[in-house]
Structures are given as C-alpha cells and as structure tokens.
Amino acid sequence: MTALSTAAVLFLLKAGAAPAPTTTIDFLYAVSPYPGPDAKYVACDTPEAGAVDHCVEGGTWVGWCAKSAAPKDFTLMEGPLVFTDGIPRIQGCDKSRWMWKPSGAAPAAYVAPKAGSIKAAKGTRSVTLTQGSRTFAVALAQKTFQLQVKEGGSKRALDLRPVLGDVTKMADSVNLDFVGDVNGDGAPEAIVALDLHGYTRQYASKWGASVAVMVTLADPLRVIGFTSSTPTRLYGAKNCAALGCDIIQFLEKQESCNHFAGEEAYDEARRKELAKATKGCEALEARREALLKKHGANEAVKKALLAEQEELGD
Predict the structure, then answer these.
(1) Residue 107 lies in a domain
(2) Helices marked H in 173-267
C-alpha cells in the first residue's frame, strides 16, 4: 500500500499564518479516491459555504494530476479549483490526487519517498521510508497513538493523544500513511488518520469522517499539519454528556443491531459473538417509544429516533 494508491490528500497552505521555520499545512485526507464521498465541498468565498460540510480556499493551486490509474503516473499541474459533484479538483484534471496552495511564486519540488509496504501486526502499523540518503523505520501503536521512528542509531517517539484530544475516543480505526518531504526539512512526513463514527449535536450520524495529523520525521518529531473543515467534534457513548447519553446509546445500539441482523452463526464461537452483539435488540422498539415519550418535545431528538422508520417507509 502506498499513499498515492490508497489515499487522496489535498494540501492548502494556511492563509494568513505567521511565518514559521516549518510550514503549517492545512490538508484534507481520505482513504477513498477522493475526500469526503458523502460530503459536499464548495469554495469558501461563495454564498453556499455556510450550508455545507466543507469549504476550500480559492486561488491558484498546484498539484499532481493522475493521467491513469497507475500510482506513479502523475503530471504537475497549476490552476484554479473547480468543484465537480462537490469535490474540489484542479481545473483540467479529473483525478487530482495531491494539491496545495503555493506560498510563493514557484511551487516547491515534491519527491515521493521510496517505501516498503505498510505492515500490520499486534496493534501496530509500520513502514520503512527512504528520502534521499535518509532511511526511517516508522511504527504507530494504534491503541496508544504513539508514533515511533528509528533513523540510523537514533530513536524518537511522539504521543499524539494531546494533539488529537477527544477524537481519540471516537476512532473506529487508526491508520498510518505517509507523504514525501512537503515542508522542505529533508525528511518525509507521516500521516496518522482516524476513521470516526459518531453523531453531531443535531443527532445526525457521521460515518467515516477522517481526521488526520501530519508529522515531520525530522528531529524532533512534531506535528506540522492538520485536517480542517472535517467534523472533529462527534459524539458517542464515551463522550455523550453534551447531547444526552440515553439517545446516543440507543442510536449506537440500533446501528449495531442493524449491522448484525441476519448474520450467520457458522460455528459455536460465531454464535456466541452474535448472541453478545444482538443482546437487547428485541427491546429496541420499547426503548424508542420510551425515549420519544421522554424527549418528544425536542425536534432534533424526535427526528433522530424516527429516522430509520422514515427510511423504511420510503
């Protein structure tokens, strides 16, 4: 797996940021061919920007355009953004994979690192990256959010939990990815991306929202970029107090029951797994009625509780 073949990463240099030794990079990340397949993007300076999930700063952009499905077949392009089906691309390129807004007159050269495959074992993802004459052995502990790097005889580590904050409670999966030397310090960058499932303040479900940080592998390790315009404040059973835990717990249980409904118990271990997962599903309708009676005056709650029935009715 490589960054170019499994991820779409768009780079935007943060507008108005104060000069700094390393560039602060604002980017969008997705594991699908394009970012946010269920979201709509528009230019931030348009009237529609206030009513959509994401907006992207306009202006001239530079990026790689994929001319075919081959991950190494890219051409550098420059131009304004266009939005096709709610997805930003550089004008003239339907397969924009890498995009950033240049800080000066000329874009910085980008060189992809030589990389081995990303390996997964015992809750850890790892990859070896070579940038120029430097080789980095990178490992991510998925439960503790520790990024560990070995270069030559040196070892360094970075705990990403303080940076990511509450979103670590919502992570269904934690992935390791990488890009080349984007900020010009001679080392590649690691991307740690969280796949989030949860609910907004209006009890709307958000599935597969990606939140990511970019870490330079130079010494010292430090975060140099963040995803933006992505809903990072999602709520689940572990952080539901601001919304109402009884509603969130019901919605999560409903999603779980729907997921496991009709699954085959092909052996005893699977039968026990399904029995545990579906325990309480038979009481969902009674719980729904009780919650409607308790919170029926709250239109957002009422809409969330009845959303599944309305979909079935359609």
Answers:
(1) yes
(2) 245-260
CA nearest 168: which of 189, 198, 148? 198
Is 209 within 8 Å of 234 (Cβ atoms)?
yes
User: Do 36 and 53 contact (CB within 8 A), yes or no?
Assistant: yes
User: Which tokens go with 112?
Assistant: 């992809």
Q: Scan for tokens 């070892």, then name that residue.
A: 155
Do 22 and 134 lie in one domain? The reply is yes
φ, ψ of residue 304 to 5 degrees: the values are -65, -40
Residues 170 and 272 in one domain: no
Using only the alpha carbons of the chain, give its radius of gyration.
22
Q: What is the mean pLDDT of the chain?
A: 79
Residue 9's DSSP bridge partners are 29, 98
Three-state secondary-structure class, residue 198 = strand
Indicate whether 153 and 286 sit together in one domain.
no
* Average pLDDT of the residues in 290-307: 93
| Residue in the block written with tokens 């931030």 | 44
Query: Counting Cβ atoms within 10 Å, is residue 297 exposed (0-12), middle (13-18) or buried (19+)?
Result: exposed
pTM beyond 0.85: the answer is no
- Name the DSSP letter for residue 163: H
